[in-house]
Amino acid sequence: MSAPLRERIERGREVLAMEYLAALAQRSQLHDSVAPMFARRHDAILTPAAAGTAPAGLHSTGDPAFCMLWTLCGVPALSVPLMRGANGLPLGVQLLGPRHGDARLVRTARWLVARVGAGAIG
Fold it and tell me: Who's near 43: CB < 8 A, 6+ residues apart?
């Protein structure tokens, strides 16, 4: 495991069970606050997947800052490497869908890759 992951695990061990359960109880408010974003018949929301290109090598998958919020909100999210940066490494976008809308999100991602990704990554 990487040093940052080990540090996160150690910080997590310091959280009391009652604090953890109280935080989980607040998630429903997050779920409810995200739902209106998809109420207007949007198939997905497009966001950056990361602050830049994928990191070189296999030592890290990159900074999870761009996906942690959506995981906490309980919405499906997936990253698609649509382009390459100046360093030749993948540069991705993240697609978000409504809660329980995983299948529609995957269809939308396939559509996006077919329209944009085929020529961009090549």
Answer: 97, 104, 105, 107, 108
